[in-house]
Amino acid sequence: MQVRYGGYSCVQNGVKWTTAIQTELAQNVPFNRRITVNLEGKLEGTSQADLAAKSAALQAAFLTPYLDLVLLADNGAILESLRSGGSTTGVVCIAGPDFYSADGAEFATYRSYRATFQAEYPLQAGQALIVAWTQSLTLGGGNPLIVDQLAINGPGVSVTASPQTPYTATQTGQAVGLYGYPNYPPPLFGSPRSIERIPTSPTRNGRGLVNYPIAWNYQFAAWTPLVGTPGVPP
Questions:
Q1: Neighbours of 229 (CB within 10 A)
Q2: What is residue 124's predicted lDDT score, i.e. its pLDDT?
Q3: Least crowded by CB within 10 Å, which of 76, 104, 122, 183?
Q4: d(Cα 59, Cα 115) in Å, to the nearest integer?
Q5: Residue 65: how many CB atoms within 10 A of its CB?
Q6: What pLDDT score was predicted for residue 171?
Q7: Angstrom distance (rounded) from CA 164 to CA 145
Q8: Distance between CA 34 and CA 29 in Å, rounded?
C-alpha cells in the first residue's frame, strides 16, 4: 500500500493509516462530519544528509493545505481518501509532521515520523440549518394615561389625561443559520410601527463560512388588545 498527499508519495508499505470519524449534532440533527487520519511511517535514506533532505521534503508537502490525502492499494486502487473537494475546511495537517524517535538507527538509515490530517464535511449542504433560535414578546399599554400636575401651594394632583393608552407589543429575537442566513420570522400582529432586521457577519471555518446570525425587533401599537405568544423555533 502507499499513501499520497497531493503529489507527494510516501514509502511503499511504509505508513500506518488510521481513521477516526466524528459526527456533530445541532438540536439532534447531524450537520457536520469531522474525519481525522493519523499517519505513522518511516523515511528511508542512505545518509544523514539524505534523510535531512527527505525530512524537509515531507514537511513541505504535509504543511501545504487543501490537497487530497489518499491510501492506495498495491494495484493502485483507492482504499480510503480524505478529499478537499466538498470540505468546508479543506484537508489540513493539524499536528506534525513530528520526528519523534531517537532510537536504534534513527537518522542513520531511516527516520520515523507521524502526522495528523483533518477535514470537515457538511451534512446539510445547501440548507440554512438553524442551530439557535429564540424570540421574546413584550406586551403592554391599554392603561389610563395618568399625568401628575404640580401645584403652586400644597401637594400636586394626579389627573387622568386619557382613559386609555395604546396597546403595545415588542417582538424581538435572534437566530443562527449554520450555512446561510435563516429567514426572518413574520410580524405577529400585522404591520409593525417599526421594523429592525440585523444580519451579522458569519464565522470563518477553514475555507468556508459557518454560523450566520440574525436579529430582529418589531414594534406594534393598537387600540385593541394585542394578545399572543412568542412562538416556537421553526
A1: 8
A2: 67
A3: 76
A4: 10
A5: 16
A6: 96
A7: 6
A8: 15
Tens digit of pLDDT for each residue in 178-198? 888 999 999 999 899 999 999
- Asked whether the beta carbons of 198 and 182 are under 8 A apart, the reply is no
Q: What is the spatial distance between Cα 103 and Cα 98, in angstroms, rounded to a whole number?
A: 15
C-beta of residue 19 within 8 angstroms of C-beta of residue 34: no
Cell 469531522 belongs to which residue?
34
Among the listed residues 67, 65, 61, 63, the one whose alpha carbon sits nearest the alpha carbon of residue 82: 67
Mind spelling out the 3-state secondary structure of the chain?
Answer: CEEEECCEECCCCCEEEEEEEEEEEECCEEEEEEEEEEEEEEEECCCHHHHHHHHHHHHHHHCCCCCCEEEECCCCCEEEEECCCCCCCCCEEEEEEECCCCCCCECCCEEEEEEEEEEEEECCCCCCCEEEEEEEEEEEECCCEEEEECCCCCCCEEEEEECCCCEEEEEEEEEEECCCCCCCCCCCCCCCCEEEEEECCCEEECCEEECEEEEEEEEEEECCCCCCCCCCCC
CA distances to 7, 133, 232 from 215, in Å: 46, 10, 16
Residue type, position 8, single letter: Y
- pLDDT tens, position by position, 134-159: 999 999 998 888 888 888 888 888 88
Grid cell in block for residue 188: 405577529
Look up the pTM and report it: 0.68
Q: Which amino acid, residue 4?
A: R
